[in-house]
Amino acid sequence: MDPEQFTFDAIDSLEPDAEKAAYESLTSLKLVRKRATGERTMVRVGNVEIGADRVVVIAGPCAVESERQVMQTAEAVARAGARVLRGGGFKPRTSPYAFQGLGVEGLKLLRKAGDAFGFPVVSEAMSDTQVELVAEYADLIQVGTRSMENAALLAALCRCRRPILLKRAMVASVEDLLEAAEYLLANGNPNVILCERGIRTFGKLTRNTCDIVAVPLLHQLTHLPVIVDPSHATGRRSLIPWLARAAVAIGADGLLVEVHPSPETALSDGTQSLSIPQFECMMQCLDPYLRLWAEERALSLVPAVAR
Ligand code: PEP
Ligand code: MN
């Protein structure tokens, strides 16, 4: 192979049987599987394209806590280069005693902050009955790790006009994640972004274990965009910039990062929320990786298309 012509697509094409073998057990994935043309799907979230020619950083607080908190975060992450604002209104918490979110009030504040800084926004719907409400305020609807297999929620999302950010369940295989995405596509919603957010393993020093190779594996198997959430994948602030770099280096289409103006007082996920200066630092350190990513993506002969 001519080193000048080096691309990761070229490596894949040297190994056609490997891809065929990986597909063998995936006969039910008719719509999510990568087509022979190699065409990728680009998902539009407001005015932002995910899966196209730039890594998209989605950032914001785990939960919306107050107008001041979300505005301050939005202003800072916009300045640092994030392109979508995140923030939970309805929070799925492991403990019933933990902060459950501001609900619709949180969604309104998120929308207000998004509009103030020109961001599309993403927020989670936990149940089928919340879908319409979340869709009213959010440009992208998140399916959380605890909900990937919630059939009633997925059914409501198929009928909804918004794109979906589908997080891998913490005890789900890559095939399970693709099955959930197939369900959405098969029932009328073609705009799905996949998210690797770490799976459960046995260590106690990180909250989850990031299955980082799921990124290129998914890119081999499906045309859908794939992003990584280094915040939930690690649960530790100090590891997030490292995993963010790894995710970009391995070809992720985007990152989902939790940021809080005062992580020590955050009402949810404080230990994994970057402070504003830490987020700025993470973005600066990503720069060379983003450039390499863009060069690599530009070599791809197959453009991404909107569905
Ligand atoms: C979140 O994004 O804040 C969240 C609850 O994510 P997950 O469902 O991946 O735990
Ligand atoms: Mn969180």
Tell me about this structure.
With 307 residues, the chain is an alpha/beta fold. The chain contains eleven helices and eleven strands. The protein has helices at 8-13, 16-24, 67-80, 104-117, 131-137, 151-158, 174-186, 214-221, 230-234, 240-249, 276-298, and strands spanning 40-45, 48-50, 56-60, 84-86, 121-124, 140-143, 164-167, 192-196, 226-228, 254-258, 304-306. The strands form two sheets. An eight-stranded parallel barrel has the order 3-4-5-6-7-8-9-10, surrounded by seven helices. A three-stranded mixed beta sheet has the order 2-1-11, with no helix packed on it. Helix 3 (67-80) crosses helix 11. The two termini are 34 Å apart. The mean pLDDT is 94. The site of manganese (II) ion has 5 residues, from loops.
State the main characteristics:
about 300 residues; alpha/beta; eight-stranded parallel barrel; three-stranded mixed sheet; binds phosphoenolpyruvate; binds manganese (II) ion
Helix content: 25-40%
Class from secondary-structure proportions: alpha/beta
Gyration radius from CA atoms, angstroms = 18 Å
Strand content: 5-15%
Number of helices: 11
Order of helices and strands: HHEEEHEHEHEHEHEHEHHEHE
Shape: globular
Order the strands across the largest sheet as they lie in space: 3-4-5-6-7-8-9-10
Oligomer: single chain
Mean pLDDT: 94
Q: Which molecules other than protein and nucleic acid are bound?
A: phosphoenolpyruvate, manganese (II) ion
Low-confidence stretches: none
Strand count: 11
